[in-house]
């Protein structure tokens, strides 16, 4: 078959796939009957428990699962069986503050893997059309592209967790000082927490908002902070939550505990900054030694070399 026929077949297949995706997305984005009727049927508990009346999420993962259905779920289950570590993934999702399940992440990994597979397949097709077909290497490249996409999505989740933890460490001293000032002014721990959450923003403030919501729903203050300490992935935040819980239980001065926690975090940040500067100093020497210094030596000795050649008999 000629390249023109191959191009026509690929274009028709792509157009058909895009048409199917657009048609399915239009159906998904239409308001469900449950969304229109369920607010008027809240007094019927059997309707609220029905799985058919759950609102459909508008996330890309749900849309992809609705379009491709069992095949995508089977691929996600296969990735889960091969990789495992559902507990670790669930904990990282909680630490990244992502409203997703482990299955949703596996579906995203499959989609990223299919993206890498598609790029590798396109490269193989272009290489074959250029006149150098290599089936074995193209298949191996497609497999590597799929595995690379799956692993890259997992690494992206880890990077999201680290970025959120860095933001929390940046916000922590200020929030702790605000809590200390509110408690020192005579407010109770719950009132101080409410005041700080209402007047601050960020990831740490959202975590404190969840603690405040747990306290308002009847959980003891110490138990709510203990749960936060258990689910947090940062030792500094865990020590802070445990210190607040112990101070509330035993009646120790909470303002002093908060000031000490903020001072500890600032000192830890200062030490990390000094260590990072020391590592960057060594890294900065690499381009100086291997790039700038050879060029400087070359410019210094090249005129002498040229002069020797000109004056030689």
UniProtKB/TrEMBL annotation:
<keyword id="KW-0472">Membrane</keyword>
<dbReference type="Pfam" id="PF00482">
    <property type="entry name" value="T2SSF"/>
</dbReference>
<feature type="transmembrane region" description="Helical">
    <location>
        <begin position="135"/>
        <end position="152"/>
    </location>
</feature>
<feature type="transmembrane region" description="Helical">
    <location>
        <begin position="110"/>
        <end position="129"/>
    </location>
</feature>
<feature type="transmembrane region" description="Helical">
    <location>
        <begin position="282"/>
        <end position="302"/>
    </location>
</feature>
<keyword id="KW-0812">Transmembrane</keyword>
<keyword id="KW-1133">Transmembrane helix</keyword>
<protein>
    <submittedName>
        <fullName>Type II secretion system F family protein</fullName>
    </submittedName>
</protein>
<keyword id="KW-1003">Cell membrane</keyword>
<dbReference type="InterPro" id="IPR018076">
    <property type="entry name" value="T2SS_GspF_dom"/>
</dbReference>
<feature type="domain" description="Type II secretion system protein GspF">
    <location>
        <begin position="177"/>
        <end position="299"/>
    </location>
</feature>
<feature type="transmembrane region" description="Helical">
    <location>
        <begin position="6"/>
        <end position="27"/>
    </location>
</feature>
